[in-house]
Structure formats: C-alpha cells, structure tokens
Design brief:
19 helices; disordered N terminus; 20 strands
Length: 616
C-alpha cells in the first residue's frame, strides 16, 4: 500500500472523525464487549463469582474449577482444523478462462502457504467459538527490500478487542463495512524511533478531554489504523465496443481516434478505500487501499437481534450456569470427603495398654501390625477391635453432579461417544452419529467458511493491482505440490499469456475433508473394484498406487504409467483427452508402418502415402 508519512494534520478533520467513530463503537458494542471479556476469562478458568470465592478463601474452604468448557471448545475447534474450508476460483463472464481460474486458485493457496494463513484462520475461529467473534486481515507488502514487487499476505489479529468494526455492518462476512479501526498501544520511545518527525507535543496529554486520555498515557501511546470508504459522484459511459469507463477517465479525442462512440451514460459513484495511521493529534501515515473491500474480515459465532440490539456470543455464554453448578457440586463432594472423620477403631478400655502409640497413629501410618490385649481393664474377655465406617457422601449430591454434567453437554451441543448406542454398529451408522454431533455446532464452521470466502474475494480484488506485471509465481495444486507459472507474459504475436488482470472471477468454497482424507477414501473405495476386476490394474493402476501413502508409491505409479498409454494424457493441456489419445494412436500406427518399411524396402508406394497421410 502506498502511503505518505506524517502529514500536516494538526487541524485535520479526519482525526476527530476517527475519535467519533471510536466512541460510536464503544457505545454500540459496550454490552457485547463486556460480556465477551467475561466469556474469555470464564473459559480460561476464572469461573467462581468473586464474593463466593472470597468468602470460601476466608473460611479456608476448597474452591475447585473443573473446566469442561475448554475441552468442549477444543473439540469444536480441532474438528474444523481437520477439514478447513478451501478457496476455489470460478469464472463469471466471457473474459474469464478456466485455466486462469485454476492459476488464481493456485495463487490463493500460495498466499495462504506464504502467510501461514492457518494461524490467522484458527486464531479468529477460536475466539469466535470462545466469545462470539474474531478477526483476521489481508495485507500487501514488498517481497524484498530491493524490489518493487509486492505480495499479498493473510495475517492474524491477536486481540479482537483492539478492532472497532462498523456497527452498521450486517453481512456475516463484513463485506458491507464502511469504517474499521484497529488500535495498538506502543511504548513512547518506540514511537519516537518509528516516527522521529512526529510533533513532540503529540506524545503528552493536553487535558483536552476524556477522549485524549484514551489515546495518551504516561509511558505508552495509542496509535490506530483507520480504514474508511469515500464515495464521489461520477458518470459512467458505455461505449460502442461494449466497454465501460468513467467520463473523467476518457477524452473525446481518444474515442474519435479509436472510432468509438458513447451509446449510454448514467450517474453513479466511485468507491475508494482510504487508510490513515494516527495518534490523538497527528496523522502519521496515509494511503489508498487498492481494493474495493476493507481488508479486515470478521469471523462470527452466534448472532441475535434483541430489541434492535446486536448480540454476539460463542459457546461459553449459555454454558456458564451449568459449568458453575458442576464446579459447585464437585467442590461439595470433595469437601464432604475431605472433612469426613477418619474411620475410628472400636476397642474395649485397656485393650491398648502398652501399645498406646501404635493405636494413636493407626489412622496416620500404614503399620503392618496392631497389637492389643484380649481382656479389658477389668480382666474380662473383650472382642477383637473393629473399625467404625463414616457416612458416605450423600447420594443426592452425586445424582445432581451427573445431571449437571448432562445439562452442560446439552447446552454446548457436544456429547460423549459413551452416550451413543453401542453394540454391533456398522461404520456407516457410526459416521452418521458423528455427523449428528458435528451438526450441533455446524454454524461456527459455516461462518468460518463465509469469512474465508471473503478473504478469497479480497485476494481476487487485489490480484490485478498487485500481480499486474510479468512475473514468475509459485502456485500450489490440490495435492499441495508447487508449480512455477509465468503470468502476464507477452508472446511473439503480442498476445498476453496467463493474463490475471482481465476477466471477472468469484470464489466457490470447497468444504469437507481435505486432500489427504479424500486420497485415503479413494484408496478404500477403489480397493474392492480392483479386487473384483484385476484387469483394472492395467487401466488405472497408476492412479490407485499414487493415492497410497507409503515410501516409493510415486515411483511405482510412474513405472506403471510408462506402460499405460492412457496414463500419458496431459490433464493440463488445452487439447481434449480424446484428441490426445487419437494422436497417440496415430503416432503408434506411424511407428509401426515405418518399422515395416525398414524391414521391407520394396514396399509399395501407396504404403508411403498412407504413412504420410496418417502422420498429418
């Protein structure tokens, strides 16, 4: 992103606009933020009310926390990691090309791999499950210090509370956001090194109001990135060749020179995303974002509208009461067992005479022998000493604990496999049971899919601006294998090959199991077919072996492919597979005829003509 450093901004109205936006977000989202912060603390283990915890601490009573929410949260998050949604690009108009769509899909995978985008996806999704929302962002930066080539990156936003999102945004992927702010607090000495030309008085509180106190602290200073949409009135022209452009971007002389005329026009608006980095009093940097979407993408959990107020929450919010009850009853059982008296010995008076120390330590030490007298103090025979067992924990407490555990699982929508039907159950039935469990929290996965699709749209929107010159790029296929491709290359005829700057493309998400899982499933599906018909090994043996996961599988598959003409078809070629096979068969026939000619020099001339015709 191009930007200018430290603009003359002492009286810039954009600073006040940014402050007003920050206040608006605080006012509209104050309840969501307070409840979400409590959710984060609760899910992290801070689960006892303060007053109860303090009273128990004063009385030296136990206050146990058995954090089951954390385990259930991980189950939802880790299940998604096994089948993370994947970006696929499809063409939308006549200028789009299927081959370019595959290249763009590979570019998206390259960007994800280059950026470690999995971290950004997982971090945002975990916060969405935990408290209701998380964020990630798309950035552009130079590839190296010695080049003008830029790259697109997907970055995590570590603390979602530092993001202030447009309160008027209603779409689940945030594509309609008009303003977004991200704040960061840094030490003042670091600020001076980063922005040595910034006015010194911007580092000290001026006492101009509460708003400045939010931005300027004693040893630290808060800076912010502020994205906002600007719209300008414009006139859109439709030309005789079908192209469209704005009136202020074309001159009449140029149209006359090209032989084009205006066949229609209409009033519209130009949309532009602007970006500034600022403190409480100074704009430090500013620039124009090249795309049409603000590159901050939300990942939401559950959303409700209650009395015109937007409520966002994750799995923690509704499970707090059940979790508190579970902690309480677990603590009660532990406390009753810990405070229960030790099993006492019932002996007659005088039976411990001479062995008083042994009997005094009978419940403390594991002694091998306890000696006693068979008579009491009066010399009369006495029975053998016996233990008096204390009362067991109340059965009502154990029943309540079990019920609370079931309530907690019902609220979270996560169930133990032990609670499912057991016995002789088919694999298909077990898979169906697991799918039912996954569906209870499928909304989280579906929302993540929408957000990653938005990331793909932002990337496609940036590609014509960032990858607008001839470059050699790495693209990554479905199987994770990289390939080098030259884009925007002009050939000898003047045509641009692999032009990623033209055509309209959209994102269609690929969900479900990833490539490795599909590969394993393919082996399991093909195995019975090959066992039933061994002749299939001659037709598709290389595909079967290549999907297996053992050392040397690719080598064996390559050797099988060399012996199978069907396996030598180039799937990436523009020539259809049937045509490729016909050409290969013709070439084989030509080779056979040439061999016959060499063996029989006196062969008739009509065979030579047939060879020539077959070759062409």
């Amino acid at each position: 992103m191009a930007y200018d450093s430290v603009a003359d901004s002492q009286s810039d109205g954009r600073i006040q606009e940014a402050k007003d936006f920050l206040r608006l977000c605080n006012d509209s989202d104050s309840n969501n933020r307070a409840e979400a912060l409590d959710d984060v603390r609760f899910a992290a283990g801070d689960q006892w009310p303060v007053e109860i915890q303090n009273s128990r601490t004063l009385e030296a009573r136990p206050c146990l926390t058995i954090n089951k929410i954390g385990a259930y949260k991980r189950q939802v998050v880790y299940n998604t990691r096994q089948q993370r949604p994947r970006i696929k690009v499809h063409g939308m108009n006549s200028q789009a090309d299927e081959k370019i769509a595959d290249i763009l899909t590979g570019i998206c995978r390259h960007i994800e791999n280059q950026s470690d985008a999995d971290q950004a996806y997982d971090h945002a999704f975990e916060y969405a499950v935990r408290m209701g929302w998380g964020y990630l962002r798309v950035e552009t930066d130079y590839v190296r210090d010695d080049t003008f080539d830029q790259e697109i990156y997907i970055r995590p936003i570590r603390n979602p509370f530092t993001v202030y999102y447009d309160p008027n945004s209603v779409r689940p992927d945030g594509s309609d956001a008009e303003k977004v702010m991200i704040t960061e607090v840094i030490p003042k000495d670091v600020f001076r090194k980063l922005y040595p030309n910034a006015p010194e008085d911007s580092l000290h509180a001026r006492g101009t109001g509460d708003m400045d106190s939010e931005w300027i602290m004693k040893e630290d200073i808060r800076i912010a990135e502020y994205f906002y949409v600007v719209r300008e009135e414009a006139t859109l022209l439709k030309l005789s060749d079908g192209s469209e452009m704005y009136e202020d971007e074309v001159k009449k002389e140029e149209l006359d020179e090209l032989g084009l005329i205006i066949i229609d026009k209409r009033k519209t608006c130009k949309k532009q995303i602007k970006w500034i980095k600022l403190t409480a009093n100074t704009i430090l940097e500013e620039g124009i974002w090249p795309g049409k979407y603000i590159p901050i993408v939300p990942v939401y959990g559950n959303q409700l509208i209650i009395e015109n107020k937007h409520k966002i929450y994750g799995i923690t919010r509704m499970s707090k009461d059940a979790q508190r009850m579970y902690n309480f009853w677990t603590t009660s059982i532990t406390e009753s067992v810990a405070l229960a008296p030790k099993p006492k010995w019932l002996i007659a008076e005088g039976q411990d005479e001479g062995h008083e120390t042994e009997w005094a330590q009978a419940n403390i030490k594991a002694t091998a022998v306890l000696r006693f007298k068979q008579t009491d103090i009066d010399g009369r025979p006495a029975p053998v000493p016996t233990r008096i067992q204390p009362e067991p924990p109340p059965t009502g407490v154990l029943t309540a604990l079990q019920q609370v555990d079931l309530d907690l699982k019902s609220v979270l929508g996560v169930f133990d496999p032990n609670q499912q039907p057991t016995g002789n159950i088919s694999g298909k039935a077990l898979t169906g049971q697991q799918q039912q469990i996954d569906l209870t929290n499928y909304n989280f996965y579906d929302n993540l899919t929408r957000s990653i699709a938005m990331v793909g749209k932002i990337i496609l929107d940036l590609v014509p601006h960032i990858y607008d010159t001839q470059r050699v790029l790495r693209i990554i296929g479905d199987d994770g294998k990289p390939e080098m491709v030259t884009i925007n290359e002009r050939n000898a005829a003047g045509e641009i090959m692999n032009n990623v700057t033209v055509g309209e493309y959209d994102v269609v998400m690929d969900t479900g199991p990833g490539y490795n899982s599909k590969r394993i499933e393919a082996v399991e599906t093909m195995m019975p077919l090959f066992q039933k018909d061994p002749q299939l090994m001659n037709i598709a043996g290389d595909l079967f072996i290549r999907n297996m996961d053992f050392p040397g599988a690719d080598t064996i598959a390559d050797r099988l492919a060399t012996m199978n003409p069907l396996a030598q078809i180039d799937e990436k070629s523009d020539i259809p597979p049937r045509v490729q096979m016909a050409l290969k068969q013709s070439q084989e026939q030509v080779k056979q005829m040439q061999q016959q000619l060499q063996q029989h020099p006196t062969i008739s001339s009509h065979v030579l003509i047939q060879i020539h015709t077959s070759f062409h």
